[in-house]
Amino acid sequence: MISKLNLENILFLDIETVPEVQYFSELDETKQALWEHKSQYQRKDDETPEDFYQRAGIWAEFGKIICISVGYFTFKGDLRNFRVTSFFGNEVKILKDFKNLLISHFSDTKHLLCAHNGKEFDFPYIARRMIIHHIELPYKLNLFGKKPWEVPHLDTLDLWKFGDYKTYTSLKLLTNVLGIPSPKDDIDGSEVYRVYYEENDIDRIINYCEKDTIAVAQIFLRLRGDDILTEDEIIHI
């Protein structure tokens, strides 16, 4: 079925998130107590809420988005390109710029969003942060009242499961088993907190986020049986 989809109608994406503030001590007492309760089942017995706080970015209620990278295919005759760009900076600006992209270029019924584990993480995280910031949800993220077959989202993890919901396959593992070249990453997800808050190096995070967006597109191509992208087909804008 996915082989019949027009690649030009799909927006591939990945997000990077961090805790909303650098240190647990910067949260007010109410938020500290809420974090302690929220994280109680994830923490090891000897871990305090403060010790565990660096992982707060995975929850939209305690984190924030620092980068959204997107990619889309363009075709001119036999020439195929994959264009990649990123939104970064202030979270409200990131969300509004991303929303504007959806409204202006990916708002038709034919358009779809695609991410790895997007249905469980990227899509709901973006939607929740928009609501927190009083940003009206664009149609592509507003799932209220939609039937499952009406949701305009693709998920490469979901596609790879083939109905087997007992397992999780990381983006890194999936690119490896599918034979997709993966350049040695400068950082990985566990280091984003440090690079953002301690090194203040957003460029490294953008590069990492864009690599993941490209990887999602490559996996989608392999699932369709198409040739994967070559370096000269990828354009950073």
TrEMBL record:
Coiled-coil region(s) at which residues? Answer: none
UniProt xrefs under CDD domains: DNA_polB_like1_exo
InterPro entries given in the database record:
3'-5'_exonuclease_PolB-like (IPR019288), RNaseH-like_sf (IPR012337), RNaseH_sf (IPR036397)
What does the record give as the organism's lineage?
Answer: Bacteria, Pseudomonadati, Bacteroidota, Flavobacteriia, Flavobacteriales
Name of the protein in question: 3'-5' exonuclease
SUPFAM superfamilies tied to this protein: Ribonuclease H-like
Record's keyword terms, sorted: Exonuclease, Hydrolase, Nuclease
GO MF, one annotated term: exonuclease activity
User: In what residue span(s) does the Predicted 3'-5' exonuclease PolB-like domain sit?
Assistant: 62-224
